[in-house]
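Researcher: Quick test of sequence recovery. Tokens follow.
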């Protein structure tokens, strides 16, 4: 006689059962035929029903997965905040009443909807403050996405202000940092960077130690199955290889789960997926790409790096 204990999956066949014999030996059965069939049964265990804490409102489209200051327009900034953050009816009423009392102005839902869509209309200061708070944005981001350029020159940091007792003790002049040359290249990079250097410095306090581990993509060279695609202006963080890559295992993965490699030869860098043809390694976008982007032998594996992080501009 056998003593059977079932742990079952009620979702779809085949149902699983764990059979335990009187001799203490276990086997996992799927209900299919075996060389030595044994009798058994399955018991459907009741599953608990957990009540929903609250019903989330339906959204036909999720929020864009980009940083707030990366938005190009004010309406996209507000629309993303509207989709990403949710307040209860009571919270919305409290926020509205508080802001209307402080700003001494009434705001309608129609006004909110208007500025979440593309419009040539410009809100007044009180309306812009109201829209910024209700959509959980920063006022500086609301200004910059409205086309206002914020300049921090001739301003003092909080630390400097705390160290003085009178305004006359503030330094009269500040040291100006020389703009890197060539200026046009620096200005282009500055528009690409936005506030990424600040975030990278928080993750890597000594950012200068990365040096050649950071690579900027200068031209379009798309890979199959990546969304969003790697566009010009993207930045890659690289790491060296400690072993020969598992090419067969890499190609069993999809999308961003598939590793990306970079082959560097002096001032030239080629990136893509890694494959092997006979005794040669190749960099390709997919297995059907011929000719390959780069072909090299085992002696050049030391020049191969793996991409561990990538920042794609929007």
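Model:
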């Amino acid at each position: 006689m056998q003593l059977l204990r079932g742990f079952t999956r009620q979702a779809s066949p085949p149902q699983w059962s764990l059979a335990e014999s009187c001799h203490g030996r276990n086997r996992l059965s799927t209900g299919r035929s075996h060389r030595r069939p044994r009798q058994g049964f399955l018991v459907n265990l009741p599953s608990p029903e957990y009540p929903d804490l609250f019903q989330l409102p339906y959204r036909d489209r999720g929020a864009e997965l980009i940083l707030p200051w990366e938005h190009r327009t004010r309406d996209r900034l507000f629309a993303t905040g509207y989709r990403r953050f949710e307040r209860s009816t009571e919270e919305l009423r409290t926020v509205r009443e508080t802001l209307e009392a402080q700003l001494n102005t009434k705001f309608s839902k129609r006004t909110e909807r208007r500025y979440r869509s593309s419009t040539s209309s410009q809100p007044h200061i009180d309306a812009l403050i109201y829209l910024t708070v209700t959509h959980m944005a920063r006022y500086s981001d609301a200004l910059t996405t409205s086309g206002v350029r914020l300049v921090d020159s001739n301003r003092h940091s909080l630390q400097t202000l705390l160290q003085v007792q009178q305004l006359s003790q503030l330094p009269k002049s500040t040291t100006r940092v020389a703009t890197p040359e060539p200026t046009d290249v620096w200005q282009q990079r500055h528009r690409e960077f936005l506030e990424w250097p600040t975030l990278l410095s928080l993750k890597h306090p000594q950012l200068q130690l990365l040096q050649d581990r950071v690579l900027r993509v200068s031209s379009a060279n798309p890979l199959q199955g990546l969304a969003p695609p790697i566009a010009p202006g993207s930045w890659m963080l690289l790491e060296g290889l400690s072993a020969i890559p598992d090419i067969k295992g890499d190609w069993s993965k999809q999308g961003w789960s598939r590793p990306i490699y970079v082959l560097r030869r002096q001032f030239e860098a080629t990136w893509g997926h890694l494959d092997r043809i006979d005794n040669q390694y190749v960099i390709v976008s997919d297995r059907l790409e011929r000719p390959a982007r780069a072909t090299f032998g085992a002696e050049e594996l030391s020049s191969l790096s793996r991409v561990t992080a990538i920042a794609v501009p929007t």
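The CA atoms of residues 143 and 173 lie 27 Å apart.
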